[in-house]
Specification:
Largest sheet: none
Number of strands: 0
Number of domains: 1
Length: 72
Amino acid sequence: MKSMLDVLLGIVGLAALVFAGYEFYLFAATKDPNGNTPHLWMAIAGAVVLCVCALGIFLRHSGAEEEIHITQ
């Protein structure tokens, strides 16, 4: 069974993915003469949060050794 932290990191990572995609869509689709840079910065922040969550999940499982039984 996965730990609660892994589930939380996964949910936050997926939410950050959706948020970053939506903000990038707003950046690319809006024709604002004043500039869309706040949407781009929010998309970058969402991507960074996604990467941190993915790294957290990976680092929690990279050191785990699988137990191999001699009889198998």
